[in-house]
Amino acid sequence: MDDLIKIVTDLTTWYQKNARQLAWRETPSAYHIWISEIMLQQTRVEAVKQYYARFIKELPTVEDLAKVSDEKLLKLWQGLGYYNRAKNLKKAALEIIEQHHGIIPNSYEKLLSLKGIGEYTAGAIASIAFGLPEAAVDGNVIRVLSRLYADNRNHTELKKEYANSIKKVLQQTNPSIFNQALMELGALICLPNGMPKCKECPIQKYCKAYKQNSVLEFPHKTPKKQRRIENRMVFCILCQNKLALHKRESTGLLSNLWELPNVLIEEETTPKKQLSKWDIEYTKIKDMGKAKHIFTHMEWHMQGYIINAESFKNCYDFVWVTQKELEQNYALPSAFRFFATDLSKDFV
User: Fold this and answer.
1) Of residues 37, 119, 134, 184, which has the active-site annotation?
2) Is pLDDT larger for residue 346 or for residue 131?
3) Angle, vertex CA 307, rays to CA 305 and CA 313, nearest 5
4) Predicted TM-score (pTM) of this structure
């Protein structure tokens, strides 16, 4: 793959004409690139734009990120999912303050040592923010290069080899432009799932998979493990214009986040029995319908209920919040969004 240099001119020329205008590209500081790359993990660019703008407005510096309360941080992150990304951002910010005098290090190895920063993110920050010849190999890049070379090995095998090949090229060209051009090609042209725009591809003439009419065979995909399914009962418990929330455990799925009270459905589980366990006296139970939420290795199949409770007393370890408090102060994971989206008519 030492001939990767041959695509540089065509690829970078295309990028400079077609690159999307994105806020983090307009001011490519290390902090901005870091925040955007963490947000973009497993999240579409269009979805990230508004979150990024709000996050940078509220936390414009590493110091601000290090000092922010956990509640505010998670509220800023609400809707992006994978909340450990946000938690690790703050941990890394504290490391930068304590170990690097508040300055994001301009070294791939030091970036890699920070909490939540892996090889791809370290390479992206190093190359885009600091112009260092470090590869940033994500799923887009693997897809582009595996098709370019008609390479059917799995991701693990490809990643290291591609990174080494890219680093050689970066010694001879602009690391920021080339890395972003590869990513952009995968995001806009060399698309997955039967959608590649080969006719518009600037490096089509070099692509072995295109010549073989086998583009959709690459990259090689490892069969996904079947997700575990959990059936859960979710409760929107209202009392005197307030909603019950519960804080999850400090470890495990959605750790330390607020949730609507919910339980795993077992053979004997009914809404009335569960409310009795919580010592909640109520006047009304209303069916809210069903919803499904998919995590990486699990699916929640949920049945929701609105409960009109008579009082706050003897109510387990819930906190009670107004609608305004819910909207402004509490980060509610998207798993519960279906049930909490429009409770205004029920806050009575």
Assistant:
1) 37
2) 131
3) 140
4) 0.88
